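Two folds, back to back.
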Amino acid sequence: MNRSKIVAIITGVFSLILAIAYLLLVQILDFRGEMKPAPTSGIEEPVSIVTSTSTNN
């Protein structure tokens, strides 16, 4: 086999491994159940301070 065929085969195998790993990861994450947002009760609201300065001559 020439070099380009070997590179193509290695690339294809690598691509299949990545695809299978991605599908497994998605299945594992999906198996965990419904995603719930993080609780916000302990988070304080940020304070915004707006100042305006104008210089009219």
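---
second:
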Amino acid sequence: MVKIELFEVDHWILSQSSDIKHNLAHSYCLPKSLSDVQRQAGSSEIGTDVFSPVLSKTLDYGPMKGSEALRSNISNLYSSESSSPLSIEKIVTTPGASLANFIVLFAFLGPDDHVIVQYPTYQQLYAVPASIGADVSLWKTSQSEDWKLDLDELEKLIRPNTKMIIINNPQNPTGAIISKQTLEQIVKTARSYSITVFSDEVYRPLFHSVSPTDPEYPPSILSMGYDNTIATSSLSKAYSLAGLRVGWIASHNPKVIDLCVNVRSYALITASQIDEHLASFVLGPPVRQLIEGNRALAKQNRNIVQSFIDKNSSVCEWARPEGGPIGFIRFVMSGRPVDDVVFCTQLLEKRGLLLVPGRKCFGDGVNFSGYVRLGFGGDTEELIAGLGALQNFLQNEYMDVPVYPGA
């Protein structure tokens, strides 16, 4: 029997569902309707012209790899960055990025394999390999180094049976990004050992603190000129449409896609043609305005959180996020990290504010004690109200929060 760890983030949010007045535990950009997307793109209200093709379509299983229109638009997201265009045959769709990640990991890894995983990161990326029986090494980063990856450490972690290097760019929960130069060095190292690089890019291209004209702007892993690279993403985070259950797997290596299609066949036959049709609309002409709007919102809201942290610098700090709509904030008492689980529990009980405790949901004990993940990609007024509740807690109840005993 496969044993898999409790998925702590989802379990935490599900188990804390009562009396929520301010939800800053989310990790996506402000959810939108299809009408919102079309208005933001400067078009008229969404109408039957978008829906009519599926209204009249016979709903059979559809193409095994996903609709050609959708895969063509996904291809365009990557091809503009690379000298080697990504053909639609090298893309396979899934219902969301979580299943895309699961398929990649299940397709490639076994009990005799070793994987190196950027850390901290989304629990799925290290818990699923471990459940399969793979040996997992955590490529650890720290706030003191702005969560930057140490390339010398990567070399030390490689073993003869290292099968895969797993990265997350931008990173959940810190909002850190992996620069172009670092990506190039990761690929150079992986190529020299024939290791596959798998990049969860679900928050891409939401880089709100680095310009696309910056030489270090992070391209997709697929633009690195190395066939043994895999990227996954979806519409859930940067594109504000988690309700359209559409994600994808992409690789220049056709053998990678064949492996993933085979595993995907065991989990589902095809994805929803209705979701895929609507996703192809979103990733068409509206996509640029959608991302630009979300990037501006995330940057504005990130600055609001920064002002809050500056005001309360005696008790909290972070390495300022550069991408994604999330940040990892460390709370201390007289320089010692607080018990983040107690902190988050009391915040919800006393102020109705939901945050995600780092030690429970992203860390192994003391490493992330005192840390909480805060989502700032939503409505600005709701963010301000949530931070107001947090400010009131800091002023009135914070002294009752214990420090973490292992600190």
